Amino acid sequence: MKILFLIYRIFGRLPVLIILYPVILWFFVVSKIARESSRDYLQRLYLYSGGTSPEPTSLNIFRHLYAFGECILDKLIIWSGRIDDLDYSLEGLEEFHSHAGAGLGAVVAVSHLGNLDFCRAIGQLYPDINLTVLVHTSHAVKFNHLLKSINPESALNIIQVSKFSMHDAMLLSEKIQKGGLIAIAGDRVPLLWGNTVPVNFLGSTADFPIGAYMLSKTLGCPLFSLTSIKVGGSYQLSCRKISEFGIGGESGSIEEAAQAFANRLEEGCLKSPFQWFNFYPFWQRCINDE
Fold first, then answer.
1. pLDDT tens, residue by residue, 119-133
2. 3-state SS, one letter per residue, for 219-234
3. The CA-based dihedral angle spanning residues 241, 247, 97, 164, taken in that order and rounded to the nearest 10 degrees
4. pTM of the model as a whole
5. What distance in Å separates the CA atoms of residue 246 and residue 257, rounded to the nearest whole number?
6. Residue 160, SS3 per DSSP
7. What are φ and ψ of residue 133, in 5° steps?
8. Whole-angstrom distance, CA of residue 43 vs CA of residue 48
9. Which sequence spans correspond to the domains of the chain?
């Protein structure tokens, strides 16, 4: 990845995209879990869409994995400070920006649909937005070290949930009270099964992590969804309020909020089928329970 990024800085994007083909082909051949997980997702999406989305063929599985390779390159571009090298639109952020501009706190559920780091970089584009990101980086320690070597600021305003403490909880509550925004992934199941809520996703029951909804309800603040989907080579960022938890969590429920978020993901998957990057057996637990 270091070599690929160096090639990008010297020669531009096209040579890297060409080199990615054999790299992704190797990944396609050796990673059975990623390959079968992609097939499972594409099959479910194909049935859910009534046959309008790409079929779960080997070629489309490769295209799905290749899109992930492009996403990794874009992550490196974003955190190198060259975000303007990418095409993107911020037209869908009006509600998000007006809420943050009013000094009101909120929890923002992001996802692995599109480029999660592009959503994180919004905090760099809007200095008036106080954004804190909760992440679990144990799966990608080397990648995060690479990001830090490219740009030390890539680790700013980040709290690792694997080391979450009472002090962190108090810090988050204080940030919300001061009008801060807390971003947390709503579609990555914890390492150990548990702390999940079942939702209907792409026609089947799936377990979604409960963190974003529990945090919003506990802190008594609104919950937004923020997505960054690549469509036709350009990232389209959009934001929508999916739950209005009142003080003390009097209004709405965790189950309703989780389902609303899953509905948003379904819309994005239908719009850009190769942009959902969860390459593990996402529906496995629910299948085993059945």
1. 777 766 677 777 788
2. HCCEEEEEEEEEECCE
3. -90
4. 0.85
5. 13
6. strand
7. -115, 125
8. 9
9. 85-289
